Amino acid sequence: MHLPLAGKAPLDLQGLSREPVTGLYVHVPFCFHKCHYCDFYSIPSQTDERMRAFVDRLLAEAALWRASAVELRPRTIFFGGGTPSLLPLDAMRRLLEGLQSLFDLAQVDEWTIEVNPATAERDYCCMLRECGATRLSFGAQSFDRAELKMLERHHNPDDVARSVALARAAGFERINVDLIFGIPGQTMRSWLHSLETAISLGTPHISCYALTYEPNTPMAVKKRVGTIVAIDEAVELQMLQETRRRLAVKGMAPYEVSNFARPGEACRHNLLYWDGGSYLGFGPSAASHVHGVRWKNRGHIGEWERAIDDSTLPAAEVEQLTQPQRMGEHAMLRLRLTDGIDVADFAARWNDDPITRFADPITRYGRQGLLVASEKSIRLTEAGVAVADAIAAEFLTTAGR
Ligand code: SF4
Q: In the chain, what are the domains?
């Protein structure tokens, strides 16, 4: 049975810029279990046959782009999800090799794959390395069993060190560990235990995200009805501040609100997003942006499959961004970076002076000690980082006025 396609404006391929697209994101939507805080598109893992058929369609989607007028010449590739490492080894190998045969990947200098620490295996890591991946990312989230249970994560704290060791043995030096703070029931002491354990693994990159209660996730509903209680905001703020301080002391200064790296080890793919770069997304629900045109692939796997089987691109929710929108988004994303908005770069890109354009929020937040502006940059102070989202949102709306 064919599922009906939502009626959305089609993607005008001819109208897209001819400048090469330099980022590629591949969304693999399978997970062992749907964690109750997660709002990414993911479904419980399927049979190996279903996942192999999924890879066939991913490569068919890639071939549609290969045949289009859009030139994909990636410098960064990111496989996320979902849990990409749930793909059977032979299917993942076919996917990596298939992309290599379809596109010129000679300029790729970072290829990240998210790997589940519960199931990482040496053969799998070696295959990823042999087939061109350069960076692995492990979703540790916490090193406390009760907190992992609260998040509905099914690995053991020990799995992470084991996975990092396997990754190193397979030849990966660029490794990331993801952590979450602000978990219900978490204390400052248990958070610092998780953070110190992650630091002790010696990976060059650590991401520390505050738990967010995304609307309509089961966890948000449980919070609303009182089944779970969010931790105190003041404690969460202390966690953020202490995290930034401890990681900076260890030579891993924050380069973005939630991301910490040794010099030269920032995630280049994420920097592409935060700098407004162009990227294509393959797979259900994957987002793309090509020089001011943005869209999302059809979010339901059945709809996505049907589009691919009809040899049509599964793009939906196509949006042509206006210049004020692009300026606002650029400012909003750059403000989350430690370097902030580069005044000269902003002026050159948009032919608009950011100090004048954002004079109101610069003055107001500057007086409150949350932001500093100079001839060179506009950036948040340490105090401003705690309210980064609110300040960034104001820059976004100011650009549209
Ligand atoms: S493993 Fe990650 S992507 Fe999958 S449901 Fe859990 S949080 Fe979401």
A: 16-274 (3.80.30.20), 323-399 (1.10.10.920)
